[in-house]
Design a protein that fits this description.
Elements: E1 4-5, E2 11-15, E3 25-31, E4 34-39, E5 59-63, E6 75-76, E7 87-92, E8 98-104, H1 111-114, E9 121-129, E10 132-138, E11 148-153, E12 159-164, E13 174-181, E14 184-185, E15 189-190, E16 201-206, E17 211-216, E18 226-233, E19 236-237, E20 241-242, E21 253-258, E22 264-269, E23 276-282, E24 291-292, E25 299-303, E26 315-321, E27 326-328, E28 331-335, E29 340-350, E30 356-367, E31 380-382, E32 387-390, E33 399-408, E34 412-415, E35 418-421, E36 427-439, E37 445-457, H2 460-469, E38 482-489, H3 490-493, E39 498-507, E40 528-532, E41 537-545, H4 552-560, E42 567-572, H5 576-588, H6 604-619, E43 625-630, H7 637-657, E44 665-669, H8 682-688, E45 690-695
């Protein structure tokens, strides 16, 4: 495992005044304005606690400052949870009324027995009630065969970290965690090889921005135990960084705790005569972990994948974007100017006239800038030439940005929303921008950081060549800043009971068929009226069908006759009688080739279909139906009218013979006057040879 080295020359440290020169003090944690720590100060032994052969016993102590900020004398933290063996380290919940602590598992009256048996370390919890700690409970995973120690409760109190030499680890002691699930701690999870090694990892601590500090004696360190920091990411954990001197040293350095942002805190070290607690503060804020900066993407590819059958020989897809751009095709790509709210309408237009045929879909497109710190700067620069770095395009919707900090090429730290820096050597420079964010909802603090590569060249000639060859890496683009909602999507509503109408006019007032607005509609078309309660308009149409393309011939004829802007509209059948009639036709079909044989006699399929019509009409005694028959243009118009009248009459006669009153039926042969497909091919002619049952209102 390789480990990155953290930034240097950013910390100042000082031994705390409550650390003695005779005893060991270590494992500090924050508690109610003071510090809780472990110490063997009640013993006269000066033996290093980490020497397993002669380990001194340690207990839990508390120290707090007085009103002037000076540290008082340390006292035993709690007699209720103090034992004669080892107590601590500890961790607390946010309210400070629950403690998790480590101690030897065999204590009290069983202590004598422990001298001859295993006495491993385990984790326990206690609650503060009436200023006393009680209700001590054992951690459910304590075990006589291995140690569980140095517990750390996450800031949200939903995860408990600890160190253990469980036999299923990677060797030595590993870091584990348990999640709080359904009222108890779940199974231990090893933090994995990104953090654990075949050496010893211990003393975990997580601050409020999610940075995990721990100690390890792995060989890549400076000597003894060293303090490392990592943070969770989408792939598990960032590669741990070893904190540099003066925090780490050639001695044992361990058990670090920090404030919310990692700017101040405490750690333990045996660099003196004994183990002591040191305070630290960061003079500069390092950028430990960062993600590649993503480029805000304002371009999108859209594909219409609806269920409506579209004849693209006659109709074209037209995309109308709210920024004024139109594009054509079933699949289009479009780039918007920037973040904002946009719409895209999908329209089917007549290829020849370019007039609207059917409004198919409408998309609401919301584009936001990616939520990330953002470095705006030149990608190229010259040696010793200042480059401007601007963070003002950083964007977080639910957070307030309260601080900016920069790291230039892992060495130089700067602050401010805008900064300038000149690199003194050529090469690829890694520029990092970190932000401290405050949640608008709960005030919690968060750290976010990105990095960007800047290329520094020796002279203008090299720079021009590099710029001419520069390609933005594809990996830095993202589409997570798009949100697409269908505000109108006919295809989403599409089902066998969908109904298309060829609409010719709409009006807030009721109109008569003799109104001049209808003058250019060929007389062969009957004008039908429906009232649209949703918008309070009267709508007038000349044809309706469950097949959208069946309306195209009539649409084309209306355009040719000079009638302006006929349009196909869409609705869902709600009338129960029309719904049942539609289901019958969907089941048996509407092509009379399936209803009649060569001698124009009804087939079995035709009889079954008509029996369903009889049943429908018997169920609705007031129902009146027009039986309309159509055909192709392969014969003369006169012969076609004769044939379709004959077939319509045969159907009507069967219905009458089955008990339907002839006064409830109208028989009509239309010949080839109303095709729904082109007659050039047999597939189209077959569709034109059809039977229609229309309810007479």
């Amino acid at each position: 495992m390789s480990f990155l080295k953290a930034q240097s020359n950013i910390y100042t440290i000082e031994k705390t005044v409550f650390s003695s020169n005779r005893f060991d003090e270590f494992a500090p944690v924050f508690y109610k304005g003071g510090i809780v720590f472990c110490s063997n100060r009640r013993n006269s032994s000066l033996v290093n606690y980490s020497n397993d052969a002669n380990r001194a016993q340690f207990n839990i102590y508390f120290v707090e400052p007085d009103k002037k900020g000076k540290w008082k004398n340390a006292d035993l933290f709690s007699k209720e949870i103090t034992t004669k063996l080892n107590d601590g380290p500890v961790t607390f919940n946010e309210n400070g009324d629950v403690i998790y602590f480590s101690r030897n598992m065999i204590v009290g009256h069983k202590l004598k027995k422990s001298l001859y048996n295993r006495n491993k370390l385990g984790v326990y919890s206690a609650h503060l009630v009436s200023e006393k700690w009680g209700n001590v409970r054992e951690f459910r995973y304590n075990n006589d065969w291995f140690n569980i120690t140095s517990p750390c409760l996450s800031p949200d109190e939903k995860r408990l970290y600890f160190s253990s030499d469980k036999p299923d680890g990677y060797g030595g002691a590993d870091l584990y965690y348990c999640d709080w699930e359904n009222g108890y701690w779940g199974d231990p999870v090893n933090l994995g090889p990104q953090i654990n090694t075949d050496k010893n990892e211990s003393y975990p601590f997580v601050n409020k921005v999610g940075e995990l500090f721990f100690s390890s004696d792995r060989p890549e360190g400076m000597g003894g135990k060293d303090i490392y920091v990592t943070k969770a990411n989408d792939d598990g954990w960032y590669t741990p960084l070893r904190l540099d001197s003066p925090i780490n040293s050639e001695f044992d350095d361990f058990a670090m705790v920090t404030d919310s942002l990692g700017n101040k805190g405490y750690f333990s070290s045996d660099r003196g005569r004994t183990i002591d607690i040191y305070s630290f503060s960061a003079e500069k804020r390092p950028v430990w972990f960062s993600e590649s900066q993503l480029q805000n993407n304002y371009c999108i590819t859209l594909t219409d994948s609806g269920g409506s059958q579209v004849d693209t020989l006659k109709l074209a897809y037209e995309w109308v974007f709210s920024d004024g751009i139109k594009q054509y095709g079933k699949k289009v790509s479009h780039c918007f100017a920037g973040a904002g709210e946009y719409t895209a309408k999908v329209r089917l237009i007549d290829k020849k006239s370019r007039e609207l045929f059917f409004h198919k879909n409408t998309y609401q497109i919301s584009i936001s800038n990616i939520e990330q710190p953002y470095i705006e700067s030149s990608n190229h620069g010259l040696v010793n030439e200042p480059i401007r770095f601007d963070a003002r395009k950083s964007y977080f919707r639910d957070f307030e940005i309260i601080d900016h900090y920069w790291q230039m090429d892992d060495t130089v730290h700067k602050t401010g929303m805008v900064t300038h820096y000149a690199f003194d050597h050529p090469g690829e420079k890694n520029v990092k921008l970190g932000l401290v964010l405050r949640s608008k909802e709960n005030g919690n603090l968060v750290k976010k950081a990105v990095h960007k590569t800047v290329y520094i060249l020796k002279n203008e000639k090299e720079k021009r060549l590099r710029v001419s060859q520069f390609l933005e890496p594809a990996a830095i683009h993202s589409r997570n800043n798009f949100k697409i909602v269908n505000t109108y999507l006919a295809d989403n509503k599409l089902n066998p009971l969908s109904l298309y109408r060829l609409e010719v006019f709409s009006s807030p007032r009721k109109m008569l068929p003799t109104d001049p607005v209808f003058n250019r509609i060929p007389s062969k078309y009957a004008i039908h009226e429906i009232f649209q309660s949703e918008d309070g308009t009267f709508r007038y149409f000349v044809q309706e069908n469950t097949d959208m393309m069946s309306l195209y011939p009539a649409y084309k004829e209306l355009l040719t006759s000079g009638f302006k802007k006929p349009e196909v509209t869409f609705s869902i059948l709600t009338d129960s009688v029309k719904m049942e009639l539609t289901r019958i036709l969907l089941k048996y079909g509407d092509q009379w080739d399936m209803f009649f044989n060569e001698r124009n006699r009804l087939t079995t399929n035709g009889i079954l279909m008509l029996n369903n019509i009889v049943e429908l009409m018997n169920s609705h005694p007031d129902l009146k139906i027009e039986v309309g028959v159509h055909t192709d243009n392969m014969k003369s118009p006169e012969k076609n009218v004769y044939l379709t009248n004959l077939l319509a009459q045969i159907i009507t006669n069967y219905l009458v013979d089955s008990g339907v009153s002839q006064y409830r039926l109208i028989s009509k042969g239309y010949g080839d006057e109303f095709p729904i497909r082109s007659n050039l091919l047999e597939t189209g002619r077959e569709r034109n040879r059809r039977v229609e049952f229309k309810i007479i209102e």
